């Protein structure tokens, strides 16, 4: 057990405490007319306030549909950051979890960043408190600090690089080619996957995503027995044994692409089920099957759907536009420090695109 494991045990308790505080998501299913009425009310407010809705793939399909319908964006956290930064709107409504709103503010301080709720967080962010993480980094001063986007602004400010799952492998390969030793935080599974793939010298923080760590290789193998011709698509925040049986491993955007390009007609998908909305649009002729989790999807709060992402509801979006009371602020000095590693990632990935 290393020092980051000891800290992670404390962090797990923090995550559990947060989960215990969560209320139940709204069970009210809107009729088509009710939904359309809400869409129109929200669209009117967005227009009036020169605002745009930026939503993550893990949000409820209604929120993703709303983002499309109002001319906003649905994407992974890397593209959300870029889209928000480059959009001309003066207000961004970020439907996702808190670190996404903070990232938007870090990159666009002149914009007002609203979120449907500031309570929506992430087990990776919670599991990497800045004081403990700083102590860990200070104990390894010869290491380059690389943090996943799923971290607080304060943790980003302590880092040399920020990465998302769609560019992490390339950035670590680049640092490894320069002979750098790396501290990776917070997701242990994604870190382990990249370490194995690149052979880089990496010290791993022991955080995890409560959604992806619930996937189990045994359950997926049983599912595969029922659908022997299906491809298995896995997000690398899942445990190593799950990644090992995947036909495609990647970020949300990369998995959507895999669903389109793999020849299989059926896909067993091991990531948050919110992704099905865009994946089905991208691959309309494919059958998408939810990968089973440890709780078999029965009653577990974090089984294949993030409880914090679920807090992004239509009513909450309308409310925040009307009252503007869920605004993200990042202290200016901290923002400037956190922007440095974020800009490094955005510049690096822009060059990859060329
Ligand atoms: S799905 Fe996992 S990584 Fe994504 S916000 Fe939820 S807890 Fe965090």
Automatic annotation (TrEMBL):
A Gene Ontology molecular function term for this protein is: metal ion binding
Does the keyword field hold DNA damage? no
| Recorded catalytic activity of this chain's protein | iminosuccinate + dihydroxyacetone phosphate = quinolinate + phosphate + 2 H2O + H(+)
Task: Give the EC class as a word.
Answer: transferase
Required co-factors: [4Fe-4S] cluster
Residues annotated for iminosuccinate binding in this entry: 56, 77, 148-150, 165, 235-237, 252
Copy the pathway line from the protein's UniProt record: Cofactor biosynthesis; NAD(+) biosynthesis; quinolinate from iminoaspartate: step 1/1
Briefly, what is this protein's role? Catalyzes the condensation of iminoaspartate with dihydroxyacetone phosphate to form quinolinate.
Which PANTHER family is this protein grouped with? QUINOLINATE SYNTHASE, CHLOROPLASTIC, QUINOLINATE SYNTHETASE A
Q: What is this protein called?
A: Quinolinate synthase
User: Which species is listed as the source?
Assistant: Acinetobacter qingfengensis
């Amino acid at each position: 057990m290393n020092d980051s494991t000891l800290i992670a045990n404390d962090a797990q308790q923090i995550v559990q405490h947060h989960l215990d505080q969560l209320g139940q998501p709204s069970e009210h299913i809107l009729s088509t007319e009710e939904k359309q009425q809400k869409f129109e009310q929200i669209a009117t407010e967005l227009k009036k306030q020169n605002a745009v809705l930026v939503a993550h793939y893990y949000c409820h399909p209604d929120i993703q549909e709303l983002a499309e319908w109002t001319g906003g964006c649905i994407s992974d956290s890397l593209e959300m950051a870029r889209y928000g930064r480059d959009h001309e709107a003066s207000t961004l409504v970020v439907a996702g979890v808190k670190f996404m709103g903070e990232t938007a503010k870090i990159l666009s301080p002149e914009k007002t960043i609203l979120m449907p709720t500031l309570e929506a967080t992430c087990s990776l962010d919670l599991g990497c408190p800045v004081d403990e993480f700083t102590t860990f980094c200070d104990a390894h001063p010869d290491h380059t600090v690389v943090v996943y986007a799923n971290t607080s602004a304060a943790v980003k400010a302590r880092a040399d690089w920020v990465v998302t799952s769609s560019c992490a492998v390339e950035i670590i390969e680049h640092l490894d080619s320069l002979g750098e030793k790396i501290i990776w935080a917070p997701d242990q599974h994604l870190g382990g996957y990249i370490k194995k793939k690149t052979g880089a010298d990496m010290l791993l923080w022991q955080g995890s995503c409560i959604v992806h760590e619930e996937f189990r290789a045994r359950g997926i193998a049983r599912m595969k027995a029922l659908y022997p011709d299906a491809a298995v698509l896995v997000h690398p925040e899942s445990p190593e044994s799950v990644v090992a049986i995947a036909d495609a491993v990647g970020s949300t955007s990369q998995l959507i692409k895999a669903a389109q390009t793999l020849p299989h007609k059926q896909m067993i998908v091991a990531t948050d089920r919110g992704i099905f909305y865009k994946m089905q649009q991208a691959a309309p002729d494919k059958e998408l099957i939810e990968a089973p989790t440890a709780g078999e999807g029965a009653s577990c709060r974090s089984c294949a759907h993030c409880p914090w992402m679920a807090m992004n509801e239509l009513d909450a979006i309308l409310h925040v536009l009307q009252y503007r009371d869920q605004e993200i602020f990042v202290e200016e000095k901290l923002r400037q420090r956190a922007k440095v590693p974020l800009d490094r990632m955005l510049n690096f990935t822009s060059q990859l695109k060329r």
